[in-house]
Backbone:
């Protein structure tokens, strides 16, 4: 019963549903044209199936359910997850449990962000308002079309040095270390006002780790 419950949790696909037009035989699944992290993770699971068996998958974050049965790394949380079969994909990025040895009080009271901003208006707007402010450590990691805010990527462990980690996506899906706090932006028109609140909170070292966790700004 336990195994059946776990299978039913991960695989929300009704029996008899046909694959979509983008599905292809497993034997045609190649590294070329597929992000390497997903290719090797997929390979762990599909190598035991016949090469003629079909496979359809998504390697991006999911905001809406697929119309046909699809393998994916994430799905909606509202229970409406038809046609979704979860796999442990891009596991070296998404399924790790790093140990953060830096107590919150010893971290820099700064809002930290590294990520690409090219073609992402809400991120560019945030940089225009706050890059250079001593309470913010913002860096654009876009390799092509580098902006004046370009900064190299950093190791995951380097994030442990900061009290606040910024997640800047249209609908936040975030990770934070046990003793850091995540601040998520939604790209709303009130971004500038809420960023002021973040700046004030960042300037107060005594603010607790839970104060800003998950707060949309």
Residues:
């Amino acid at each position: 019963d336990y195994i059946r419950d776990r299978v039913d949790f991960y695989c929300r696909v009704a029996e008899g549903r046909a694959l979509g037009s983008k599905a292809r035989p497993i034997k045609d699944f190649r590294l070329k044209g597929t992000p390497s992290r997903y290719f090797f993770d997929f390979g762990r699971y599909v190598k035991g199936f016949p090469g003629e068996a079909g496979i359809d998958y998504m390697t991006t974050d999911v905001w809406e359910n697929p119309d046909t049965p699809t393998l994916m790394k994430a799905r909606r949380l509202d229970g409406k997850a038809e046609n979704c079969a979860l796999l442990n994909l891009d596991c070296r990025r998404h399924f790790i449990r790093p140990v953060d040895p830096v107590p919150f009080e010893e971290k820099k009271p700064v809002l930290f962000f590294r990520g690409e901003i090219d073609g992402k208006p809400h991120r560019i707007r945030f940089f225009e308002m706050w890059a250079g402010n001593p309470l913010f450590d913002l860096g654009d990691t876009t390799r092509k079309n580098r902006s004046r805010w370009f900064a190299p990527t950093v190791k995951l462990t380097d994030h442990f040095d900061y009290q606040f980690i910024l997640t800047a996506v249209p609908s936040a899906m975030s990770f934070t270390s046990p003793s850091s706090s995540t601040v998520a932006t939604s790209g709303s028109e009130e971004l500038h006002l809420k960023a002021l609140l973040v700046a004030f909170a960042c300037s107060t070292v005594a603010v607790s780790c839970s104060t800003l966790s998950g707060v949309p700004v």
User: Anything to note?
Assistant: The longest helix spans residues 191-202. The longest strand covers residues 108-115. Residues 58 and 72 are 5 Å apart (CA to CA).
